[in-house]
Amino acid sequence: MLPDLTLPDLSLVIGGARSGKSGLAERLVTGTGRPRRYIATAEAWDDEMRARIAAHRADRGAGWETVEAPLDLPAALAGAGQGEVVLIDCATLWLTNHLLAEHDLDAEATALLAALAACRAPVVIVSNEVGWGIVPDNALARRFRDAQGRLNQRLAGQAGLVIGVMAGLPMVLKGRLPAWM
């Protein structure tokens, strides 16, 4: 019997900074054997961020179609083909971009969730867990933390698979890990 190489319509990989969530999400996507679409939400505003983006690209290796979508994830998702699998890295930077652009965060989150539901390909989305730290000392940071927490809850509610990552180790919070993991 052949192993099942499918993923749910939506999978969420969530964890803290440098927890190993991106690497795990990449392994999930690669394990399907499908053509891979990487939707990048980061913007390179300085040399350090350009280096981070280059390192992520090098770590992924060849075989990925990269689409840059710092703000318009719904359009990037609409371009995905049924035979592909999509990795969005990450919801946290996407939300930050909208916050800094002074967009309506609830409306943007609602549009994203609708686009995820309509996407023809399975999607793995990476997000940061921001609720385990201290309460931020300023209103903008608190607004971001609260909006990210709400977005993470909505993503987890819609996802068929939710994996928390801590110290590089996956913890299944909802659903089941595919056999190849």
Account of the 3D structure:
There is one protein chain. With 181 residues, the protein is of the alpha/beta class. Helix content is 41%, strand content 22%. It contains 6 helices and 7 strands. The protein has helices at 21-31, 47-60, 73-78, 91-100, 105-118, 139-158; strands at residues 10-15, 36-40, 64-68, 85-89, 123-128, 161-166, 169-174. The chain has a 7-stranded mixed beta sheet with strand order 3-2-4-5-1-6-7, with helices on both faces. Strand 2, helix 2 and strand 3 (64-68) form a beta-alpha-beta unit. Helix 4 (91-100) crosses helix 6 (139-158) and helix 5 packs parallel to helix 6. The longest helix is centred in the last third of the chain and has 20 residues, at 139-158. The chain is globular. The two termini are 17 Å apart. The mean pLDDT is 93.
Main β sheet profile: 7 strands, mixed
Q: Which residues form runs of ≥5 with pLDDT under 50? A: none
> Given the structure, what is the number of helices?
6
Strand percentage, roughly?
15-25%
H/E topology pattern: EHEHEHEHHEHEE
Overall mean confidence score, pLDDT: 93
N-end to C-end Cα span: 17 Å
Shape: globular
Structural class call reads: alpha/beta
Counting DSSP E segments of at least 2 residues, the number of strands comes to 7
Rg measurement, Å? 16 Å
Strand order of the largest sheet: 3-2-4-5-1-6-7
Report the helical percentage: 40-55%
